[in-house]
Amino acid sequence: NKNLNNDYTIKTNDEYKGKKAAIAAALQKDEDFDEANLEENEVEHDMGDDGLLLPPYPKSQLRRWAPAPFVKPQEETPGEMGKAVNIPIEQEKVMLEKFQENQFNLLASDMISLNRSLTDVRFEKCKAKRYPTLLPTTSVVIVFHNEAWTTLLRTIWSTINRSPRPLLKEIILVDDASEKEHLGKKLEDYIKTLPVSTRLFRTESRSGLIRARLLGAKHVKGDVITFLDAHCECTEGWLEPLLSRIVEDRSTVVCPIIDVISDTTFEYIQASDMTWGGFNWKLNFRWYRVPEREMQRRGGDRTAPLRTPTMAGGLFAIDREYFYKIGSYDEGMDIWGGENLEMSFRVWQCGGVLEIVPCSHVGHVFRDKSPYSFPGGVQAVVLKNAARVAEVWMDEWGEFYYAMNPESYDKIGRKILVPTKQVWMCGGTLEIAPCSHVGHVFRKTTPYSFPGGTGRVVNHNNARLAEVWLDDWKHFYYNINPGALNVPVGDVSERKALRERLKCKSFRWYLENIYPESQMPLDYYYLGEIRNAETSNCLDTLGGKAGQPLGMGYCHGMGGNQVFAYTKRKQIMSDDNCLDAAHPRGPIKLIRCHGMRGNQEWTYDTKSRTIKHTNTGMCLDKPESADVWKPVLRSCDRSRGQQWLMQVDFKW
Ligand code: LR7
Ligand code: MN
């Protein structure tokens, strides 16, 4: 089947050879462009007093560009114009087998031309936009581990086909210790035939995407670095709007709208321009709806650049010098994860701007699972990276992250729980009175269950003891019991020094100015478990999603689903959900926090220990009976079942 082997059917290759002369002529012209034309494209640039902003590009560095040539659809191959590829039923078994390899439909991908056509998904207004006639050049850096041939090559070809040639300095590939035959000599030979300078570097051993990108960036010759994942498709006009933002202000970091390439059919599906990047307490990147205030700032123009609190991480352009000036990446991060939020916080806190440019569209194959290995274990890697973000950039708000992650409970212990009074160290005496004898049944094993697991409960309690009372001797405990050390963060002193050196602003500043809609409460009175005085059980989200009723459980003291924040806005929050009651007799549900009080306003009284629902005037009460694990609303009656324990210290 010709289609399955289409890597040798590139038509544009020859086409481009014929155009070489024309491109050379265009470049030649750049040497003696007329000054008058230049003036109008020059942008005033304000040097900030923090010394972080760089002057605009020297004129000689900018390139005159023309739109990329139009690539004709190859009508005979499947998937043209971004259409879905459907696999005939008789090939379904092969399809499923091949799916495992990359966690996307490789069979479908292999059937699609490497330079397939796509529809122009841009707003009409975007198509009509004019960008400066002189722009900086960019190197496109693509890192990969075990990427499939056709997705990688389609990323490369869509870059070549849809970028104005004078602006595309080169493509830099970084192979992160892949084990696939086709990424060896075959790839080396293939890239020599490409019409754009393409260099391939290899990490010595598996380094993870963060260190692989750092390796690629080191070799960049263009003025701007544009990062892409290895399974993308660039669309018409994707590059010009990105570069033109950077030429206006070199401390702007820009992302395209990331459209969806279906992992099952490879259909190109346009993504919403009304979402931006956020994050939750677990420090997962999340898409949220763009708030009205940002729409207003842009004067209601949906084609205007959107200031986003965070970025997804894989697809963005940044001035090369600025990339290094603000501290490139945290080299202490492994494999995958965390670097996207780290760079987002860093850019904003250290004087830069992070934008999504809605006139630039790039497709990305979103998949449900990671196809590759995580040396050290997924959890350990991802949690470690996230903890480094929390440690360096998030100040007190790092606690939310630790509270959500039972695996990091040596950290939450310090915040959530109240230290037990230790008799000796606090002035008391502890004695055995030899004249008093009491018998006790000693048994070999405990007859009851340990919710969360015996080891974890015991480790947890002991770690808390060690943290609070043992000072330097706690290391004996951790050394003998390495399981309790859980997620080592590694050395973050260099990153903290960077933050100091760049005089970056605080995380509070970021939350107040850049992301007031965030899921992190600005001011909160309490973060921890909420325990019922009568039953001694704790409020528990039971891990349910938005819309589910609030539950209760035995208090396990390990954070996660039993961690709530009581905020200055009088919300009781768990991650991005809030306790919400619409009727005087309940039910109490977890609903996405709206920050507008209403059904989500609760008042905690430290004396009576009641949690009163403002709208209904009812009090939060223990469940009706022991076998229904759902707290309820009841008329306030000062009963013990309506008393809840929180160590609230009202600071505001
Ligand atoms: O060890 C590794 N070495 C690598 O070179 C692991 C990965 N990689 C490569 C990999 O082959 C790919 O090209 O790194 C790239 C990104 O890895 P993916 O595709 O597995 O990541 P993702 O798309 O699931 O994840 C998103 O979040 C990551 C957090 O570390 C990175 O920032 C990804 O670049 C990022 N992708 C996007 O932003 C695209 C939009 C997804 C969303 C939301
Ligand atoms: Mn990806």
TrEMBL record:
Q: Where in the cell is it found?
A: Golgi apparatus membrane
The GO terms describing molecular function are: carbohydrate binding; metal ion binding; polypeptide N-acetylgalactosaminyltransferase activity
Cofactor dependence is on: Mn(2+)
One Pfam family this chain carries? Glycos_transf_2
Topological type in the membrane: Single-pass type II membrane protein
Its Enzyme Commission number? 2.4.1.-
Q: Tell me what this protein is called.
A: Polypeptide N-acetylgalactosaminyltransferase
Organism in which the protein naturally occurs: Danaus chrysippus (African queen)
For this protein's source organism, the top of the classification is: Eukaryota, Metazoa, Ecdysozoa, Arthropoda, Hexapoda
